[in-house]
């Protein structure tokens, strides 16, 4: 059983390449995309088609409702399930997507948590009723950790409270004593190189296709069912369409905003991939198929 990862900026052709390799190598696919994990966000997430999902088994797609919280912990559990089934059924595994932070988390691992009793869970839930006060409590005990956590970040505040109350020490001290352990030790990572002008053109076409397929109707249905509160509703594509529905921008301005913000995201993804992985094979999309087959299979 072999594992590889294919990463690259949004609209670079990752999913199509992964599907081609998976069909050639009898592999399953694990998606590392922060939107594809959610059900009902289909067009905005540019998910693989039903035919593609039926052709190759995918993990990490359509797992959570849009108002469910998604975290690294959940992604790691999904990876472990994908790995277990791949080993059991003697399949290879291809990890693919634009949210490379999750891939990095697999390679770095997470720190273990202290024992959490039902009483601690109950006490933390009570503290979370006043989120700013909970943040202030933690900031006094551990200013180092809380400096990077905003007072409205409920998920991370809850996690820090659980560690603080379960260990009776500042989270930074707990992390120092319990460093993360890698979940994947060796993984060939292939990165799609694409010129900025070409990528911008692909993003523009993807935006036009997304809108033609009914992205506005999809966002209307999501807002009607889940409101604008969930984190997923703050994603690129959704935010700009909501601005259009509010009458703040024209249709053309909305489309331009989606393209611009997606291009900015792609630039950040390229920078992250280039700087966060020490061992990386980068090449244009048209060359990677042969490179992957030669080096990994």
Give keywords:
alpha/beta; Rossmann fold; Histone, subunit A; 2 domains; six-stranded parallel β-sheet; 14 helices; 6 strands
Low-confidence stretches: none
Distance between the termini: 10 Å
Strand segment count: 6
Largest sheet: 6 strands, parallel
* CATH superfamily placement of the largest domain: P-loop containing nucleotide triphosphate hydrolases
CATH-defined fold name of the largest domain: Rossmann fold
* CATH architecture call of the largest domain: 3-Layer(aba) Sandwich
Q: What structural class do you assign from the helix and strand content?
A: alpha/beta
The 3D shape can be described as globular
Number of domains: 2
CATH class of the largest domain: Alpha Beta
Number of distinct helices? 14
Estimate percent helicity: 55-70%
Order of strands in the sheet with most strands: 3-2-4-1-5-6
Order of helices and strands: EHEHEHEHHHHHHEHHHHEH
Strand content: 5-15%
The value of Rg in angstroms is 21 Å
The whole-number mean of residue pLDDT values reads 95
Q: Can you tell me about this structure?
A:
By secondary structure, the chain is α/β, with parallel strands linked by helices. The protein folds into 2 domains: 3-109 and 182-296, P-loop containing nucleotide triphosphate hydrolases (Rossmann fold), CATH 3.40.50.300; 118-177, Histone, subunit A (Orthogonal Bundle), CATH 1.10.20. 56% of the residues lie in helices and 9% in strands. Helix 1 packs parallel to helix 14 (285-296), helix 5 packs across helix 8 (154-167) and helix 11 (215-226) crosses helix 12 (238-245). The longest helix has 26 residues, at 251-276. The termini are close together. The mean pLDDT is 95.
